[in-house]
User: What shape does this take?
Amino acid sequence: MTLEQLRIFVAVAEKQHVTQAARELNLTQSATSAAVAALEARYGIRLFDRVGRGIVLTQTGHIFLGEARGVLARARSAEQALHDLAGLKTGKLTLASSQTVANYWLPPRLQAFQAAYPGIEVSVRISNTERVASDVRDGTADIGFVEGEIDDGALAVRRLDGDALVIVVGPRHPFARQRKLPPDWMTRTSWILRESGSGTRAMLEAALKKRGLKLADLNVQLVLASNEAIRSAVEAGTSAAAISNLVVEKAIATKTLFRLEGEFAQRSFYAIRHKERHVSKAEAALMSRVVGQRAASPQVL
Assistant: This one.
């Protein structure tokens, strides 16, 4: 069994699709399939069931997935310790980030970090808040950046600058240019929302509760797992959306979207890491550049 085989198995298990995993790993489909088949043949077990055109983990595969992730996390920790000895001249960091943070808040900060440490390779996995927390907990990411609050005893959390949730509609919406909205305007329009598990969705639910409303009170027309998809759909239709001001500020300025009321709610972003894992020099340097933490004190976020 090799680390490469474990890496391929984990990618296939997470994607539940050989072709997508091969594309992510920059491998051929045949090489990816062969690596999984070699593991199954060597130990006389089946890790995946072939169901129609797809694959799903067997019970054995589910158990092995946790072990494989743990081995890869320890290997990455050992590799990072050696990179530390090189004085930040080389190294690798894997970040996980929720969509709003990854697409709007994080990029300029990563550019500043890479300008200072060009030898450190940084990769970013983008998903929703729940998945980011899972990646950090499992060790598949060194640091996570999310817009949703995390309550997990295994993770250290640091509050960062944030954004505001705003309600927007497109130019065809009857409320687009209406100065005074009716008291029940939120229940008189259809909505396009982010998926369950996203920080944006959780923030909307909390803001509704303060107004004495529930998500079930809204006429939800569509649920999309992308901020950009929501923005485009709202611009073209007659539904409203609750979305980060960072996502729509340019569209509001050009009047392809119109904001209803003021800021609907404010929130912070959060940096998260595993409490018990080694904090590398590269991680400390990244935190210093990204969130202003002193690199000399890397033990906590």
Q: What stands out?
A: Residues 175 and 181 are 7 Å apart (CA to CA). The domain at 162-267 is CATH 3.40.190.10 (D-Maltodextrin-Binding Protein; domain 2). The mean pLDDT is 88. The radius of gyration is 22 Å.
